[in-house]
Amino acid sequence: MPIVTTMIWYRVGSRYETPGITGISHFLEHMMFKGTERYGKGEIDYLTTINGGSNNAFTSRDYTAYYFSFASDRWETALEIESDRMCGNVFDPEEFELERNVILEELWMELDSPWGALRQAVESRAFEVHPYRHPVIGQRADVEKLTLNRMVDFYRLYYSPANAILCVCGDFDGDRALRLVEQKFGNIPNHEIPRLTISSEPERREQVRLQLQRPTNLERLMIAFPAPPVVDPDHFAVEMLDKILSDGKLARLYRRLVEETRVASLVATEFDETVDPYVFLVRAELQPGSAASDAEAVLFEELLHLAESGPSEEEVLRARNQCLTQLIGDFETTIDQSVQLGLMETVAQFEYWNDYPARIASVTPSDVRDVVRKYFRPERATVGILEPDPAAEPTNAADTDSALDGEE
Amino acid sequence: MSSQPRLDFHRSVFDNGLTLIVAENRRLPLVGIQVFVLAGVDQNPPGQSGLASLTARLLDEGTQKYDHDQISRIVENAGTSLSLFSQREVSGISVQLRSEELNTILELLQQMLRHPTFPEDRFVLEREVVRNHVRALADDPQTVASQLLNRLVYAGTPLEKTVLGIPEELAGLTVEDVRRFHARKFAPGSVWISVAGDVDRNQIREEIGRRFADWEAPQFSREVVSCFRRQDRPLRLTKHMDKEQVHLLIGHLGVERRCSDYLALQVLDVILGSGPGFTSRIPRRLRDEQGLAYTTYSDIASSSGIYPGRFQAYISTSAANRERALEGLLGEIREVVDKGVEEEELETAKRFLTGSFVFEIQSNYLVSRFMFATELFQLGSNYLERYPELIASISREEVNRVARAHLDTVNYSTVVVGPVSEGKEFGRDATGKDPGR
Question: Cα separation of A83 and A186, whole Å?
Fold first, then answer.
């Protein structure tokens, strides 16, 4: 396919933020499309458009990444733009204020969503000291009072060749690309990034519980367990557990919660690759007549079974095939490739993928049992429940109480 | 030019009408299969919204040869991913598999499409799951707004109701309804199997022929929905939801995919509301220049299909910005209709569309969808190659003409969802002025 994706990753995200400036990495990501010394406002998008490309960016806990995809006869435009905005981004005060409004709208959108609100609440309580407790989008008060000067300092500190990983995937000449990268980025002044002292999270000894009320139609449950970082050897067994718990109709939680007890209509798990220990999330949407506590009881019972007996050989074999087939699909397009390689080089090393099949294949049922015993203990969990506000009326899109007014 | 994309694909139509489309791509040991059945929301009988979707969702819950547990084992033990979908005019099955699993999966697909048993207990379970998904979706104001707009735009047709079904109708569906729907709507002449990836096209044609060529569907009947009507007066629907943001959606009936203005409307979309980044007028002015929203866009071409799609312009913003945002959206629509587009915008949009067309075929999944659309709408097997010149030939006058012909600045629907008072108050409050001018 004659396509090239250029994706640049900076090692900066909510992990690098302190109280008072939460959300700064994400806000900065937005400002990186506002123009540079060389490209005026709107020109980055304009160049993307006339060249028939696409661009976007994303910020997470451990990274901020930007990408362009272009047809392969014009992909080099991406290098021009990325090298320029690595050191020459322009921060206009008016643009900064306008973008603050956009980000506040994004924040409202997240908090208006039942899952968005519950996630922020659970994540903030799952950590006591680690910066992963801050939402990536930031606390509202911090976003409202962030100053432009603070952002410029932050940009100068973290946007530097020594803190960036450039990932180019697709149909291009490797030697020429390396020469070009040297030419475009070689002269950018480099500085070492000061090492952050990030407090490690003390081991939790008592379960944390929280409850939100919102005007929703059903109850939602989200439980966070501590999870190993990507460099931890336990990572692979937890990845397999993720499949065993929730991938497909044979998965344990689907079987127990949706099919057998019928307390939930949806159950999902989330497990990410992170620099520091983060969380493994389990979430469920409850059927009417069932309470989140019913689903919680079933979940802990299932985890107890796994901690006692481990998964079956068949479950492990199935999870292995799911991981390995997904691996091939995860490298299908040039954007997929850039995400997988860039992410892994940012949080660990891209060679992770070379070892991945063998590491996954080596996970045994007892490895899975052991990680359940280690991480998935009730006292280490953060349990969040979002329940319908009893004062609010249920919402139904198709009901008849919407007001139709077409008389004019 | 190295960026000129090419896609070789091959079509076979069996005697019973089933169509197979194949594109070989041996780069990865993966195959993407999409089965499309012309039995979407459009085929739901009156009072039975959700039936097409429920039927599709139950295809993997039991067949003559396999029970639901065996099906899950066939799929999941090999790491295959299989999903079932239902949309406005098609339902179907989407599979991604390793090439070595191909014959096993083709056998499974034959069972699912031709011999599903729809066991009663699985029906009851799935119906309850869907009913709860419907409740969950009703918590999302953007989804609610979109559903309400369909109610206005497609009033009087099956498309006015949601894909999953409205609660009271869903509650009344029986397993017999599902079995009858399958018998009537799943027929070889309504099925397209689109395959992209690591396959041999002759071999797969043989395997598909062996499993599907003798398929007959004597009870087949397909309804063609034809009572679409552009509204002849402005309509408004408001829905209170206790949220911070208000969601505004403006729209009306759009065009069919085979409409001769389709490509000019694609160009218009890039200029008005769905270009990359913030280059289009609506996101540039309302988000980038005024900071009103995180999400705002418009489009008309992308929803067109067998039936007319809809023109829609959307913005979500804090309640205090409601009037400004609504006026902003309307202002942009009026401006493009009244004053047309600039020559430079036109050239930029055309360059974008021709340059980015290659992204339409960058994965097996996208290739199989592209091939289906090409065949269904008879765009010609060289459509990909012809696309740049088709776009290049579109003039400014043509874009201005299609904007005037297909965007209506008087008779349109407005949906407002969020912290608003319902009914008359909104009528006075937001549109005391004439909404059309």
Answer: 9
ipTM of the complex: 0.93
Which of B197, B212, B227 is the C-terminal boundary of a domain? B212
Summarised one tens digit per residue, pLDDT across range B212-224 is: 999 999 999 999 9
Q: Are residues B117 and B239 in the same domain?
A: no
pLDDT at A400 over 80: no
Contact with chain A for residue B337, Cβ under 8 A: no
Share of chain A above pLDDT 90, in %: 92
For residue B214, how many other CB atoms are within 10 A of its CB?
12
Do B377 and B289 share a domain, yes or no? yes
Q: State the pLDDT at residue B422.
A: 53
d(CA A108, CA A100): 12
Which domains occur in chain A, in start order? Answer: 3-185 (3.30.830.10), 208-388 (3.30.830.10)
Average per-residue pLDDT for chain B? 94
Tens of pLDDT, residue by residue over A21-53, are 999 999 999 999 999 999 999 999 999 999 999
Q: What sign for the dihedral angle of Cα A293, A295, A300, A301?
A: positive
CB-based contact (8 Å) between B427 and chain A?
A: yes
The residue range of the domain holding B350 is: 235-431
Residue B435: its pLDDT value, please? 26
Inspect the interface and report whether the beta carbons of B137 and A402 lie closer than 8 Å.
Answer: no
B351–A contact, CB cutoff 8 A: yes
Closest-CA residue in chain A for B1? A73
> What residues form DSSP beta bridges with A283?
A222, A268
Cβ pair A183, A357 in contact under 8 A: no
From chain A, the residues in CB contact with B81 under 8 A are 325-326, 329
CB contact under 8 A, B277 and A287: no
